[in-house]
Design a protein that fits this description.
The chain has 466 residues and is of the alpha+beta class. Helices cover 39% and strands 14% of the residues. It folds into five domains: 61 residues, no CATH class; 90 residues, Phosphorylase Kinase, domain 1, CATH 3.30.200; 188 residues, Transferase(Phosphotransferase) domain 1 (Transferase(Phosphotransferase), domain 1); 36 residues; 70 residues, no CATH class.
C-alpha cells in the first residue's frame, strides 16, 4: 500500500467519459478516474517501488456476498459489453475467486444455427492458441441451454478507446502493433486466420499489453477442419481485405489478416480507418475499387517509412502485401530501432499496371487512344518528310590562303569570288551566297555544313601564290 504522502499522477477524465490511460469509465466526481486512483494507491509502495499485489489481485481476494445471479461456476458482477451476438460480463470464479470476463450468447440467438456456430468457433479457435498477446480462454461451458466461455479479464479497454492517445504517440502505437502482428503470425502458424482484426478486437490488459480477441470469424487454413465452413458474415467494413468483400472467403490467405493489421495501424496513426463513408456499403465499395489513401495525405507529420509500411499492408493485390504477419512485425521493429525497413514504395510503372488491372475498361480505352495518337503522329511526320524538298545545290567555303604574305589573302578572296560567279551562272544549280557560308570559314566537318545549309555538295579550297 502507498503511504499517505506518496505522490501519484492521476489522469483527468476526457469528454467521452473514458480514461485515456486505462480505458475505465469509472470516476470520482467529474474528473478523476477511479480505477487509476485505486491502482496508484495500491500498486506502489510509499518509496515508489512496485507493490507485490496489484488492484486486480486484491479484487480477486474480496470475499463479498454472492449476488443472486450465477452462470455455472461464475458469479456475475456487472455487464461490460454487448454486441449483436453476445453479451460480456465481468465475473468471479466462485472457488478460485479469480476475476474473469465471461461471454454468453444472447437468448434471442438460441435457435440460430449460424450464430451458435460462430460462437463455438470463437471459443474453439482461441482455446487452441497459447500466446502472451492472445486473450486466453479458461473454460467453455453451457448454462440454461446457452453456451458461454470465460476468458482473461482485460482491464485496460481496447485499442479503439486508446486510439486518441496513441495518435499522439506513434512509437507506442507501432510497438503495440508489432506485438499484435507477432500474435497473429503465431495464429497463422497454428493454422488459424482471424479475419476480423479491428481496434475494438484488440484489448489491453492492466499493464498495457495488447491481447488479440474475438475469433468469431476465425477460419482454419486446413481444408478438412470444421471451421472451414464459415458463415456469410465477412468482417467489419473499413478493416477487411478486398478479397473478403469479393466473395473469396474460401481462398483467403494470411494476406487478409496482414491487410487488417495495416488498417488498424492506419487508424491508430491517423485517427480513422483507411476508408470511410456514410454507410457500410459505401465503405465496402471504396475498398473494392480504390487504392488505400497514403498515410501522410491524412497525417503529413508522420514518418515516410511508416507510410510505406502501411501502403504495403493495404495493397489491393494480396501477393503485393507482406508475405506474412511476421514480416510486418520485423519491419515495424526495424523502424522502432532506427534501422532501414525492407518495404519500398511502389514505382510508377508498377502502380500504373495495377491500376490497369483494376480498371480494365478505362485502361483499354486509354491504350486505344494512345495507339491512335501514335499512328496519327507517324502519318504526320511522314507527310512532312515527303513534302520537304530534297537537298540540292552547292556551298563554296571561303578559300584558304597558303602564302605567308598577308596581301596574298586578298588574292585568295579574288579567286573565291571568281569561282562563285562562274558557278552561279550554271543553270539549275543552287549556289549558297557568300554571306551564308562566311561563318563556316576554317570549319572541317563538311557533312555537318551540308546538313545545316541543306545542300548536296560543299566545296573547300586553298590558294598559294608563287
Amino acid at each position: 500500500m502507498s503511504s499517505p504522502n506518496a505522490s501519484v499522477s492521476l489522469p483527468l477524465q476526457n469528454e467521452t467519459g473514458i480514461c485515456p490511460k486505462c480505458g475505465s469509465a469509472s470516476r470520482v466526481g467529474r474528473s478523476l478516474c477511479l480505477n487509476c486512483l485505486l491502482s496508484a494507491g495500491i500498486d506502489t509502495n510509499g518509496d515508489g517501488t512496485q507493490a507485490e499485489e496489484t488492484l486486480d489481485d486484491l479484487l480477486g481476494k474480496i470475499d463479498g456476498p454472492d449476488t443472486d445471479w450465477h452462470l455455472g461456476n461464475y458469479q456475475i458482477l456487472e455487464e461490460i459489453g454487448r454486441g449483436g451476438m453476445g453479451v460480456i460480463y465481468r465475473a468471479r470464479q466462485r472457488h478460485s475467486r479469480r476475476v474473469v470476463a465471461l461471454k454468453r450468447i444472447l437468448s434471442c440467438h438460441a435457435d440460430s444455427r449460424e450464430t451458435l456456430m460462430r460462437f463455438r468457433r470463437e471459443a474453439q479457435a482461441a482455446a487452441n492458441l497459447d500466446h502472451p498477446n492472445i486473450l486466453p480462454i479458461y473454460e467453455v461451458s453451457e448454462s440454461e441451454g446457452l453456451p458461454f466461455f470465460s476468458m482473461k479479464f482485460a482491464g485496460g479497454g481496447s485499442l479503439l478507446e486508446a486510439a486518441p492517445m496513441l495518435r499522439r504517440d506513434p512509437r507506442r502505437a507501432v510497438a503495440l502493433m508489432a506485438k499484435v502482428a507477432r500474435a497473429v503470425q503465431y495464429a497463422h502458424v497454428q493454422g488459424i486466420l482471424h479475419r476480423d482484426l479491428k481496434p475494438g478486437n484488440i484489448l489491453l490488459d492492466g499493464g498495457g499489453e495488447p491481447l488479440v480477441s474475438d475469433f468469431g470469424l476465425a477460419k482454419w487454413l486446413q481444408p478438412n477442419s470444421d471451421l472451414t465452413r464459415t458463415p456469410s458474415i465477412f468482417g467489419t467494413p473499413g478493416y477487411i481485405a478486398p478479397e473478403q468483400v469479393n466473395g473469396s472467403n474460401g481462398n483467403l490467405t494470411p494476406a487478409a489478416d496482414v491487410y487488417g493489421l495495416g488498417a488498424v495501424l492506419f487508424h491508430l496513426l491517423t485517427g480513422r480507418p483507411p476508408f470511410t463513408g456514410e454507410h457500410a456499403l459505401k465503405v465496402i465499395q471504396q475498398a473494392s475499387e480504390k487504392p488505400a489513401p497514403k498515410l501522410r495525405s491524412v497525417a503529413p507529420a508522420l514518418d515516410r517509412d511508416l507510410e510505406t509500411i502501411c501502403a504495403k499492408c493495404l495493397e489491393h493485390e494480396p501477393q503485393a502485401r507482406y508475405r506474412s504477419a511476421g514480416d510486418l512485425a520485423e519491419d515495424l521493429e526495424r523502424w522502432l530501432h532506427g534501422h532501414s525497413i525492407v518495404a519500398r514504395p511502389v514505382s510508377p510503372p508498377v502502380r500504373l499496371w495495377r491500376w490497369s488491372r483494376r480498371n480494365p475498361i478505362v485502361a483499354g480505352m486509354a491504350a486505344l487512344l494512345l495507339a491512335l495518337a501514335t499512328v496519327v503522329g507517324v502519318m504526320t511526320w511522314k507527310a512532312e518528310t515527303a513534302a520537304r524538298p530534297p537537298r540540292s545545290g552547292i556551298a563554296i567555303l571561303p578559300f584558304e590562303s597558303l602564302s605567308p604574305e598577308k596581301e596574298n589573302a586578298f588574292f585568295a578572296d579574288g579567286v573565291y569570288d571568281g569561282v562563285l560567279t562562274k558557278l552561279a551562272k550554271v543553270a539549275n544549280l543552287k549556289v549558297i551566297s557568300h554571306n551564308s557560308v562566311a561563318k563556316y570559314r576554317g570549319a572541317r566537318d563538311t557533312k555537318e555544313i551540308g546538313r545545316a545549309l541543306n545542300v548536296t555538295y560543299v566545296l573547300k579550297g586553298s590558294v598559294r601564290r608563287e
